């Protein structure tokens, strides 16, 4: 049975005497090591969560939550499909689209790109691309005018800007006087966009859906329908429900499957970083072992006296577990406080450090994300706190077990 005596003696042993300053120094070092490890773990994972959130927002600036298409490359009775999809209570916006791979050329410059045909009036409901148009306006995409809005990197590689003409080459062919020839169409650049993702800025161009349909010879058909939900994290479940509800051979994909490799890589990186930084906490926790071993050696006579006064081996073990647990708990609490404070203020502290030392960690001309984002998840904090406390308690077991095995006669033989 746990008694206050064990707690009192365990806490008393955490205070330094004149001849045990070195032991107290190691205890302090262990405590600071655990605190620094927990602080680093919380901060790094919060920054990685921030990068993941930032990249997710940029991806969804061009990608939709769910796309509904049909095997064969074109969705024929898309208006009926759109009507059925609209009956789902979590679908808040939808828009048809036409998409196809093409080759764009201007002068001697040639580049491959995906031309996406959109309805300017409905595009704002399913994507954030309108917020990222740097030059021109989405309303400039008028049917029959063959206007096109290019990603900033794509425009740079072609050496064109608003008002310039580009030739779009479709992979479909037509029969001419000299045989098979690719379909060509001259488009006029009416704007530029930049969402901050190289994949889109370098490889996507926007056109009016009617112009794109003529280019790809779809007639009145479209490539598919893009959907926006009230909660993007419900996309996998809603996609499964729509796949069951829709009659016919339709393909329903959500954003997590379209970018599965990317998000899987981010989760793997977070898991690896968690393991690596947990090792820092483990090293600090193992310092508790050396601290308690030296304390046990130093307190041999005290242990023997306690045993002769009637203390059980279990009570002796509890005393030293408490002493080690105090180190672990204080270090963990300090680390949690420091990590949470740093994670919540990293977006303010990093610019201040950059200005103070006249450096720039993420140059905007090199990195699309030039600011260090942070997104603190309390479930991560709870998990890290639990890991630190468990490691600290485990580190106390062996020294406490050795203390409990001390024989009073042997310990007091030379006293």
Describe the 3D structure.
The chain has helices at 4-13, 21-59, 78-85, 120-126, 152-158, 198-203, 209-215, 235-245, 255-258, 260-298, 300-308, 313-357, 378-404, 408-411, and strands at residues 66-70, 91-106, 109-118, 133-135, 147-151, 165-176, 179-193, 204-208, 224-229, 250-254. By secondary structure, it is α+β, with helices and mostly antiparallel strands. The protein folds into two domains: 4-57 and 262-411, no CATH class; 66-258, no CATH class. It has a six-stranded mixed barrel, surrounded by four helices. α2 packs antiparallel against α13, α10 runs parallel beside α13 and α12 (313-357) runs antiparallel to α13.
Task: Please give a quick description of this structure.
By secondary structure, the chain is an alpha+beta fold. The chain has helices at 4-13, 21-59, 78-85, 120-126, 152-158, 198-203, 209-215, 235-245, 255-258, 260-298, 300-308, 313-357, 378-404, 408-411; strands spanning 66-70, 91-106, 109-118, 133-135, 147-151, 165-176, 179-193, 204-208, 224-229, 250-254. It has two domains: 4-57 and 262-411, no CATH class; 66-258, no CATH class.
What is the radius of gyration?
33 Å
Strand runs, count: 10
Q: Name the beta content range.
A: 15-25%
Count of DSSP-assigned helices:
14
The rough form would be described as elongated
How many domains make up the 3D coordinates?
2
Contiguous runs where pLDDT drops below 50 for at least 5 residues: none
Strand order of the largest sheet: 2-3-8-5-7-6
Pairing-aware structural class of the strands and helices? alpha+beta
Instruction: State the order of secondary-structure elements, H for helix, E for strand.
Output: HHEHEEHEEHEEHEHEHEHHHHHH
Residue-averaged pLDDT, rounded?
Answer: 82
Helical proportion?
40-55%
End-to-end Cα distance? 31 Å
Largest sheet: 6 strands, mixed, barrel
């Amino acid at each position: 049975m746990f008694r206050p005596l064990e707690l009192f003696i365990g806490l008393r042993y955490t205070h330094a005497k004149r001849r045990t300053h070195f032991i107290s120094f190691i205890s302090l070092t262990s405590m600071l090591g655990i605190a620094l490890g927990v602080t680093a773990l919380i901060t790094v994972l919060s920054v990685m969560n921030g990068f993941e959130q930032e990249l997710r927002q940029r991806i969804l600036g061009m990608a939709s939550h769910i796309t509904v298409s049909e095997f064969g490359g074109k969705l024929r009775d898309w208006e009926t499909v759109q009507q059925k999809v609209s009956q789902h209570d979590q679908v808040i916006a939808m828009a048809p689209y036409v998409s196809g791979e093409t080759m764009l050329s201007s002068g001697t410059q040639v580049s491959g790109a995906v031309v996406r045909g959109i309805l300017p009036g409905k595009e704002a409901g399913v994507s954030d691309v309108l917020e990222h148009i740097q030059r021109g306006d989405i309303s400039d995409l008028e049917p029959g005018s063959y206007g096109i809005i290019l990603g900033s990197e794509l425009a740079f590689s072609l050496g064109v800007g608003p008002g310039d003409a580009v030739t779009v080459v479709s992979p479909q062919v037509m029969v001419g006087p000299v045989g098979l020839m690719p379909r060509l169409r001259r488009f006029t650049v009416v704007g530029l966009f930049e969402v901050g993702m190289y994949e889109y800025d370098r490889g996507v161009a926007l056109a009016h859906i009617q112009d794109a349909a003529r280019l790809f010879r779809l007639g009145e058909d479209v490539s598919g329908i893009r959907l926006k939900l009230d909660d993007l994290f419900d996309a996998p479940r809603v996609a499964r429900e729509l796949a069951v509800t829709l009659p016919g051979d339709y393909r329903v994909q959500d954003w997590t499957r379209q970018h599965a490799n990317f998000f899987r890589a981010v989760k793997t990186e977070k898991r690896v970083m968690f393991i690596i930084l947990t090792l820092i906490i483990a090293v600090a926790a193992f310092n508790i072992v050396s601290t308690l071993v030296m304390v046990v050696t130093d307190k041999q006579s005290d242990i023997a006296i306690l045993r002769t006064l009637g203390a059980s081996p279990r009570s002796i073990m509890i005393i030293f577990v408490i002493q080690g647990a105090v180190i672990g708990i204080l270090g963990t609490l300090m680390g949690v406080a420091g990590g949470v404070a740093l994670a919540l203020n990293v977006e303010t502290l990093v610019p201040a450090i950059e200005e103070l030392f006249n450096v720039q960690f993420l140059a905007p001309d090199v990195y699309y994300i030039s600011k260090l984002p942070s997104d603190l998840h309390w479930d991560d904090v709870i998990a890290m706190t639990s890991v630190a406390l468990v490691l600290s308690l485990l580190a106390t077991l062996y020294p406490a077990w050795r203390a409990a095995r001390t024989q009073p006669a042997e310990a007091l033989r030379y006293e």
